[in-house]
Design goal:
The protein has one domain. Helix content is 78%, strand content 0%.
């Protein structure tokens, strides 16, 4: 019964608007998010390979 209600309710309620807003945010900021992930991975890599503490 629950799955049937998911298929019928496609009128564009709050959940669809929330999904659209999240998708628009990620689409607008994709380069910032990618740069942040690359920076975090690079910082972890450098921390594990360099034994010198600042």
């Amino acid at each position: 019964m629950y799955l049937k209600s998911l298929f019928i309710d496609t009128t564009g309620g709050e959940i669809q608007k929330l999904g659209y807003d999240i998708g628009a945010f990620i689409g607008d900021n994709i380069f910032l998010i990618a740069g942040l992930l690359v920076g975090i991975i690079f910082a972890i890599f450098m921390r594990k390979n360099l034994k010198v503490k600042p």
